[in-house]
Design a protein that fits this description.
alpha+beta; six-stranded antiparallel sheet; five-stranded antiparallel sheet; 38% helix
């Protein structure tokens, strides 16, 4: 039996690499805005002239194919900074950022970011750390999608969801967000039917279960074995 009460796994945004002083410097430069659900912070192809810090809410980063299929690459939440990791070269966004819950965001203009980097060398170092986390997260996501097939990609995605939204009780981890099979298929580039079959196999092996429509990870070790988990830290192994 799965216990009714869980202890929440502590979550950290991707800005955890900034010192308190440097994070306060970022806060001072931000312009606050409320963004309704269903709107977009930016579209693929827009110029990347600003970053967005999520104070409240959730945002997903997606990539669309020529056929119109959507691939969900990241799910950002409070404490995360969103945007192209190289904002100084007039590049264009490679992804689309869609708001999936009404969000309060802080907007950081490129010119303000450049001033902080020029004036404070310790801020520049922290920003480089943030960029490094961003690139490493991208690398591990593509490793999951390309190296160990769809079952490996699904298991890795479940582990990432557990690290991001998990509530732990003993050996079980409840993913405390309702994630549909369509969402999972968009996260790993598979069909919904394939996800249904793979989840059914994992349930038969007693690796996962459902509780009130939400996924419970019962055998984390099995999922790690299937996806050849490299035991990355939680700031990297997240959705």
């Amino acid at each position: 039996m799965i216990k009714e009460h869980y202890n929440v796994i502590e979550a950290h945004g991707n800005t955890n690499c900034f010192s308190e002083q440097n994070f306060n410097r970022l806060l001072v430069t931000m312009k606050e805005r409320m963004v309704p659900e269903g709107s977009h912070l930016f579209w693929e192809g827009d110029y990347s002239d600003k970053l967005f810090y999520i104070k409240r809410g959730r945002v997903k980063l997606t990539k669309s194919t020529d056929e119109g299929k959507e691939l969900i690459l990241y799910m950002y939440q409070a404490g995360d900074m969103v945007g192209q990791a190289d904002p100084f070269f007039s590049t264009k966004h490679s992804f689309t950022a869609e708001v999936i819950e009404e969000s309060e965001v802080g907007i950081i203009e490129q010119k303000d970011l450049e001033i902080l980097i020029c004036q404070h060398c310790d801020f520049a170092i922290d920003f480089m750390k943030w960029m490094g986390i961003h690139h490493r997260l991208t690398q591990t996501k593509f490793r999951d999608l390309m190296m160990y097939g769809k079952p490996g990609a699904l298991c890795s995605t479940l582990i990432r969801l557990g690290n991001t939204y998990g509530e732990k009780s003993g050996e079980n981890i409840l993913i405390n967000k309702k994630i549909t099979h369509t969402d999972l298929s968009n996260m790993i580039g598979a069909t919904r039917e394939s996800v249904n079959r793979m989840l059914s196999d994992l349930r038969k092996k007693d690796a996962v279960e459902y509780e009130n429509g939400m996924i419970v990870i019962k055998d984390l070790g099995m999922l790690q074995e299937i996806c050849h988990c490299e035991l990355c830290p939680n700031e990297i192994c997240r959705i």
